[in-house]
């Protein structure tokens, strides 16, 4: 998967490139750019361009290739001189390096690019044929600078990108990429690029031809289609198979990943020569091994040749610390010493040939990612023939060794019981410098209850969560012991294991193989809680009986007498506020009742068993050699049973829980009920077999399933209160404590009244509504306040609750409204006057309410609507005599909410427009001037207070005459 950086790549500079003065002869065959961040706080990188030149036809240009311009991806560029030139392949090619440093301004993604004029001539898949020397060479590398990545270097490619292939035979190449940080690498195909003149930009060469599609017809095995691929995991680039002799260039990208994040990618542009001759490629076999750091690896590498020719075995990889030109990197740049070597490598041997990969590994070389050694074999054909090669991979997983000789033994500290772990000093600790800070190997200590063997897997590092261990400490690797004091329980077996965590940049370092198990069972020298039962439920005078055992495994005389129990109490199921409530001295004599106490609280601290559960523990003391009482141990706390009730429809749901060192699971618990109140009598009504978790439930429906003490079955009433108590049975899971038998405890008493959700029947609602047809023109004249009279009757039925105590009336002004509660009316009233209304329009329904507060379904809905009326005159006399001065409705308009008036003169011009709550026009124009006598046309839009919110307005059109000049209308 290719990642697109969301922060965006910094744009390459558009400034002019400073081209070196060289001849334009052909010389560039292949190359790539690598980077290495230098130590320190600044963002300074060492940047290396590695190029491969044709030293036969392009020697003159190679001689002159003394400098090139680097574009750094932050808008800057610099000319960089050649720092090295070494000949390879019998001086037919050379490896050239250009090294510089550059400091970046801040975090971001930067693409570094270099272009060179020109490629060597004759590359068939960069047409036109024979003109590849007219195409520039361009490679780039993208780096991500991020503080979270710490120091980072790109991978280096240790196998030169120059090889030979044969027509009709599968060709493979591996770049032998190695990442010193241990980051994960992924490979994908790309295309060769060319630089755009006078800029830092590039593009894929438009005329590039895919080798398989254009220069092949069949695979080596005769099948189709031919393929050109790269293995995303191993980097094996294979062409199956070339169909034409000649020179070819192609490119691929190496992605660098850390913790699932793409942090960089390198483009390598490489070249191969395909020849047409009968020679067959030699064969070499890889391997995969997994060893502990510190092991001397002596791995035999074997190669053969189908033609019987001599072969040369070589190898490339980080452990050699050698570059692609055969020169060593600075000490420790790729891996810490010692370095690997290939015995009998690089020499001509009769086949079958053998070389030995030899590497004395050490702890500083352990890491999560494997080391991939690229194995290569070349045949040695006769004079005039071209050597062919094959590749294989030797994959080495080098893991950090485990912590050795882990043991565990019981001990005691001031905090109480403890387990001391010891082990041999860790042999593979190391110190790493990361981002300018030092980090060291840590030992991670894990613990779980119970001892379970783990099948050893030498190459499996760390401790998978599936084994059930929890980390309890992380300590320096120099430690050889640790004391565990966290929540240890007597009689429980504890398993311990240790994993070393080694520091390192990226995926270097990592986790070691897990240690062997140290298993220990703490001896039972402390008392054991056996009972916390509620004897009396009261807010002030509650009473709880507490019992425990004498210290198991401790006999009189084992420790100094006298001994002492200190009983402590805390409030709540998980309470931790323990205070001493009793001190009991003892000599552990037979027949003495020294392990029981009845807690009645005190005047300072009342025991409220109604509201609270309580938790108890016992500290055990012995007399030390100095005559002082010394605490030996403390019991695991145990709480009282806490019962809760939830009333429901004619039933009561019970649940109870406890926090005890014994288990109440998979036992039968007894439920008791009293119909006479908290003072009883109580009858057992059920035996509940509980499963699973420590919260248990039972629902009382009134039945009594245990009739030995009398049958009290009958339906629960919402008018009565019922009281409950639960008796639990429990047992310790530890076999040594299971002999204590079944442990019985009682909860507090709690009472509840069942609810009653039976609904009353819905009432039948009526409304005294207006009869619009019977109203005269003067009905309701001048009336501004109205009353709706409602009345209802209660219906009945066999499934309805007849105990009705009241009604709820609901009202909505408009038919579209959801009615809201208007009034609550107590029974037996069955009528209601809705007064002070501005309109009679509205809808109603009523519900009945039972004694239990349950509301019935709504009654039928009744609605009332208004009876509108609005009549206009055809003449008025606005002469100020107080008579007929206004254009307004005749007699009694009814239920009018608003009026809009528009007036036109006889020529059709609008002379007045206005709105009001009712119509009262004074004969003036819109600007306040008196309009002359004459005939005028009007349009009146009337909105009424109707039931329908969306009811359309009434539009009245007509004429009216204005009379002035002393005219009076009586």
TrEMBL record:
Q: State the InterPro entries in the record.
A: Ig-like_fold, PKD_dom, PKD_dom_sf, T9SS_type_B
Q: Which domain of life is it from?
A: Bacteria
Can you give the residue ranges of the PKD domain? 57-118
Q: Which SUPFAM superfamilies match?
A: PKD domain
What the entry lists under NCBIfam families is as follows: Bac_Flav_CTERM
| Name of the protein in question | Gliding motility-associated C-terminal domain-containing protein
Taxonomy of the source species: Bacteria, Pseudomonadati, Bacteroidota, Cytophagia, Cytophagales
């Amino acid at each position: 998967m290719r990642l697109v950086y969301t922060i965006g790549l910094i744009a390459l500079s558009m400034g002019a490139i400073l081209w070196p003065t060289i001849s334009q002869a052909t010389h560039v065959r292949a190359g790539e750019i690598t980077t290495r961040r230098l130590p320190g706080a600044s963002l300074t990188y060492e940047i290396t361009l590695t190029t491969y030149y044709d030293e036969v036809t392009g020697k003159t240009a190679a001689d002159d290739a003394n400098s090139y311009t680097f574009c750094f991806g932050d808008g800057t560029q610099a000319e960089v001189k050649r720092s090295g030139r070494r000949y390879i392949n019998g001086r037919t090619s050379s490896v050239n390096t250009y090294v510089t440093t550059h400091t970046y301004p801040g975090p971001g993604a930067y693409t570094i690019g270099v272009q060179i004029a020109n490629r060597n001539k004759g590359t068939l898949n960069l047409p036109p044929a024979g003109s590849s020397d007219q195409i520039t060479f361009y490679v780039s590398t993208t780096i991500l600078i991020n503080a979270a990545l710490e120091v980072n270097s790109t991978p280096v490619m240790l196998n030169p990108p120059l090889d030979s292939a044969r027509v009709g035979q599968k060709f493979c190449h591996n770049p032998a990429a190695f990442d010193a940080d241990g980051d994960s690498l992924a490979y994908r195909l790309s295309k060769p690029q060319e630089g755009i003149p006078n800029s830092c930009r590039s593009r894929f060469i438009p005329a590039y031809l895919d080798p398989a599609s254009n220069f092949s017809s069949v695979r080596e095995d005769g099948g189709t289609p031919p393929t050109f691929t790269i293995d995303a995991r191993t980097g094996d680039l294979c062409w199956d198979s070339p169909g034409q002799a000649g020179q070819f260039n192609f490119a691929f990208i190496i992605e660098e990943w850390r913790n699932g994040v793409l942090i960089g990618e390198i483009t390598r542009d490489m070249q191969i020569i395909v020849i047409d001759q009968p020679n067959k490629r030699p064969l070499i076999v890889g391997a995969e091994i997994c060893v502990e750091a510190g092991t001397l690896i002596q791995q035999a590498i074997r190669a053969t040749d189908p033609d019987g020719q001599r072969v040369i075995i070589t190898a490339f990889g980080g452990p050699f610390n050698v570059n692609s030109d055969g020169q060593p990197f600075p000490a420790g740049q790729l891996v810490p010493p010692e370095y690997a070597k290939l015995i009998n490598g690089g020499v001509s041997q009769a086949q079958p040939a053998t070389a030995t990969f030899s590497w004395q590994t050490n702890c500083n070389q352990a890491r999560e990612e494997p080391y991939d050694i690229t194995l290569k074999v070349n045949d040695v054909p006769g004079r005039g023939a071209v050597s062919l090669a094959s590749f294989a991979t030797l994959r080495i997983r080098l893991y950090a060794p485990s912590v050795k000789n882990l043991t565990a033994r019981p001990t005691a500290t001031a905090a109480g019981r403890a387990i001391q772990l010891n082990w041999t000093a860790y042999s593979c600790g190391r110190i790493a410098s990361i981002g300018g800070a030092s980090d060291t190997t840590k030992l991670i200590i894990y613990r779980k209850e119970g001892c379970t063997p783990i099948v050893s897997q030498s190459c499996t590092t760390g401790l998978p969560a599936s084994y059930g261990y929890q980390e309890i400490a992380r300590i320096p690797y120099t430690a050889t012991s640790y004391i565990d004091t966290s929540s240890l329980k007597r009689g429980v077996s504890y398993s311990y294991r240790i994993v070393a965590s080694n520091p390192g940049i990226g995926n270097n370092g990592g986790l070691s193989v897990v240690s062997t198990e140290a298993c220990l069972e703490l001896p039972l020298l402390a008392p054991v809680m056996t009972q916390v039962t509620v004897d009396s439920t009261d807010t002030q005078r509650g009473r709880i009986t507490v019992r425990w055992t004498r210290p198991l495994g401790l006999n009189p005389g084992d420790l100094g007498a006298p001994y002492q129990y200190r009983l402590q109490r805390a409030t709540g199921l998980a309470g931790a506020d323990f205070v001493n409530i009793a001190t009991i001295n003892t000599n552990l004599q037979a027949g003495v009742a020294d392990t029981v106490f009845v807690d009645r609280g005190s005047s300072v601290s009342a025991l409220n068993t109604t509201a609270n559960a309580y938790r108890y523990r016992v500290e055990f003391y012995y007399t030390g050699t100095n005559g002082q009482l010394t605490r030996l141990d403390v019991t695991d706390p145990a709480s009282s049973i806490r019962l809760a009730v939830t009333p429901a429809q004619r039933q009561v749901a019970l649940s109870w829980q406890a926090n005890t060192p014994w288990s109440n699971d998979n036992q039968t618990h007894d439920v008791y009920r009293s119909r006479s109140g908290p003072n009883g009598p109580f009858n057992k009504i059920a035996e509940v077999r509980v499963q699973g978790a420590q919260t248990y439930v039972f629902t009382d429906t009134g039945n009594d399933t245990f009739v030995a003490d009398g049958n009290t079955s009958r339906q629960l009433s919402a008018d009565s209160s019922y009281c409950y108590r639960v008796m639990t049975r429990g047992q310790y899971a530890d076999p040594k404590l299971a002999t204590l038998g079944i442990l019985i405890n009682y909860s507090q008493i709690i009472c509840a009244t069942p609810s009653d959700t039976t609904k009353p029947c819905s009432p039948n609602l009526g409304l005294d509504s207006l009869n619009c047809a019977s109203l005269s023109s003067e009905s309701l004249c001048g009336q501004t306040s109205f009353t709706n009279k409602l009345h209802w009757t209660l219906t009945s039925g066999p499934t309805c609750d007849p105990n009705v105590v009241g009604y709820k009336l609901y009202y909505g002004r408009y038919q579209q409204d959801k009615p809201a509660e208007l009034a609550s009316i107590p029974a037996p009233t069955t009528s209601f006057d809705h007064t002070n209304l501005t309109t009679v329009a509205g809808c109603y329904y009523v519900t009945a309410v039972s004694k239990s507060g349950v509301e019935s379904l709504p009654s039928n809905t009744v609605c009332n609507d208004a009876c509108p009326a609005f009549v206009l005159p055809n003449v008025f006399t606005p002469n100020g005599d107080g008579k007929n001065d206004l254009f307004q409705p005749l007699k009694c308009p009814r239920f009018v909410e608003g009026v809009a008036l528009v007036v036109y003169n006889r020529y059709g011009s609008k002379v007045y427009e206005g709105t009001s709550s009712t119509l009262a026009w004074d004969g003036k124009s819109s600007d306040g001037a008196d309009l002359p006598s004459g005939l005028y046309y009007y349009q009146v839009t009337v909105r009424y207070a109707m039931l329908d919110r969306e009811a359309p307005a009434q539009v009245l059109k007509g004429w009216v005459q204005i009379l002035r000049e002393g005219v009076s209308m009586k």
